[in-house]
Amino acid sequence: MGDQQVFRASTTAPVNIAVIKYWGKRDPKLNLPTNSSLSVTLAQSDLRTHTTASCSSSFSSPDSLILNGSPQDVSGARTQACFRELRQLRKQMEESDSKLPKLSQMPLRVVSENNFPTAAGLASSAAGFAALVRVIADLYQLSSTPTELSRIARQGSGSACRSLFGGYVAWEKGTEVDGSDSVAVEVAPVSHWPEMRALILVVSAEKKGVSSTSGMQATVATSTLFTERAERTVPKRMEEMKKAILDRDFDTFGKVTMRDSNSFHATCLDTDPPIFYMNDVSQAAVRMVEEINEAAGRVIAAYTFDAGPNAVIYYLAENEHAVVGLFKNVLGSKDGWAGSRGSAVKSNSEAKFNAKTAATLSEGVSRVILTAVGEGPISVDDHLIDADGNIIER
Amino acid sequence: MGDQQVFRASTTAPVNIAVIKYWGKRDPKLNLPTNSSLSVTLAQSDLRTHTTASCSSSFSSPDSLILNGSPQDVSGARTQACFRELRQLRKQMEESDSKLPKLSQMPLRVVSENNFPTAAGLASSAAGFAALVRVIADLYQLSSTPTELSRIARQGSGSACRSLFGGYVAWEKGTEVDGSDSVAVEVAPVSHWPEMRALILVVSAEKKGVSSTSGMQATVATSTLFTERAERTVPKRMEEMKKAILDRDFDTFGKVTMRDSNSFHATCLDTDPPIFYMNDVSQAAVRMVEEINEAAGRVIAAYTFDAGPNAVIYYLAENEHAVVGLFKNVLGSKDGWAGSRGSAVKSNSEAKFNAKTAATLSEGVSRVILTAVGEGPISVDDHLIDADGNIIER
């Protein structure tokens, strides 16, 4: 023990799906966005990254990271920025209290696992960097708040900053050149509006052609419509969305969610060359949600699409049968209904829908994920690295 | 004869496909647009409307119009506006010269035929209203210029005003409340740049869900990005496009054509509810054009999409093998290659292309049309109504 001691901490961190989209950086190095964004954090029982960070003077340099069993390159600027900033905070603590072990000088060994199929095309980098930053902060016993840590996680992956909170989370773009005020803040905790649910339709697709990082920079550089979105459309929607959440007003929440998703994809299409993330299956999901809302006579379901064809459909628990029941009727044979959430839903076979839309969905959706609004990162005792610093094989 | 005489005139009129898109009306009744637009008139040997107008005091009221063998409703405000304005111009002539027969007081009998499949989803209303206005002007022996007639045709169908000219045609939005300066003008005649060709990929699709008329009004009412397009993006592109045409600069012509098509569809997607005209097949056509241009190392092909999934691909005659040859390699089994233009093209089997893109195209394209820049309306002696006023059965 002593100098050879292995220090460990473990956490799980959630995925978040934005309802006001982040698209465009004003500073690519610091991941400073051109507009604020707002997301719902999703339950970790369904989608989460589990990460253990350890350090020991017995570890050989350099720092290492293993994700889903595969060693990752940590030399990239983004991961290095996270390691450097967290070490710096630890170093300050160590300098003010000489009794503290010098963890900041020890190599880091980090192991991370996702509980969802990476092939699903779900943005896992948000959960990944949120877990990485949270777990190293825990390992270093930093007193930083989630908002303070969000400034660091943002440099790993922009949207990761929002995964440091549960519930409803805003990432305020900030105005400072150094990004010090570009941080995530809680709009409302899960408990404020716990009835929010999400149905994810995973669309079978090739690997996406354009990564978000290069795609959003192309949009900023070439779209003539983008500035209008970033400077006027989104600021207005951020206020509408915050109010809708505080008022638990699903009608406004849903309308703004759908319009902002479409606005984001419109700027992608206005990029040169154009970026298409939505395909015929995505369009069918839009149509199905429109049919559900038309039948209900109000907005009870709201679609949103990230940088890929998958649909995320938000709804309230009370409307589960009308929303998810219809999708179960059409997609009941797909993977994903076996869990407790999915098996609780009765197929809604009375609802009317367009047969062509249903056929396109059925052909193109490979699996469904049923989830809900959920908590932020959770510290756990279930370590992926043993007390001797060895990776635990599972 | 005498009062029983049947007066006749016949014309053919072309289709035009915009390279700067018309989308949005500032006055729906007068069809006054929110932005100027610019189009290429296509050859009538491939796509045209053939119309005969006749009038006689022996005809019974009201006016009648038969299109492709089916009687049409002419009581709509748009057709009525065209009839009324043309009659008014004739009436002025009759009042200043009492020897002229009183054609303005006689019922009109109009017969019209398209030489292209209406099921193809090609905007036929432009050719249709251009032919209607041109042929009645001929019947009435009006001295009005094409630009003066374009003010009338515009009230029938906005884009029809551009089909009164051949070659390269601008529709200047105008600023007058009465629409008197919202007219079409020639940018350059066919002879200025006769090498322009167009390949149309007709995509098998359901009937389009949203008509242009209601679609564009929804965009004006709900898209937050639309104003930027109409007020700043398009005016700049109109100047770039006119210069490109005058300079015979295909690189700029192609780039601006593609960007403006994407900008238009972006505002459709930003509409609430979103309007999708492009589908997976359209996206594959985009990708194929991108591959062609990449292989060439410059822009030799330019796609554009109207309010539907069909692709129109402009190119210069000198690049026919590189552009059309590749499509023939992929789509050689489809209808449309038998004509003189199509059979002259050798399939380009050496060119590389993405197999998935090609499969999507092959699955979704039902026929091709090969055409070129062409002349404006042509007066013809081939009448669809005989000297006694009877419709000639064919």
Automatic annotation (TrEMBL), chains A, B:
Pathway: Isoprenoid biosynthesis; isopentenyl diphosphate biosynthesis via mevalonate pathway; isopentenyl diphosphate from (R)-mevalonate: step 3/3. It catalyses: (R)-5-diphosphomevalonate + ATP = isopentenyl diphosphate + ADP + phosphate + CO2. Residues 198-378 form the Mvd1 C-terminal domain. One of its GO terms (cellular component) is cytosol. Gene3D superfamilies: 3.30.230.10, GHMP kinase, C-terminal domain. Keywords: ATP-binding, Lipid biosynthesis, Lipid metabolism, Lyase, Nucleotide-binding, Steroid biosynthesis, Steroid metabolism, Sterol biosynthesis, Sterol metabolism. This is Diphosphomevalonate decarboxylase. One of its GO terms (biological process) is ergosterol biosynthetic process. It comes from Coniosporium apollinis (strain CBS 100218) (Rock-inhabiting black yeast).
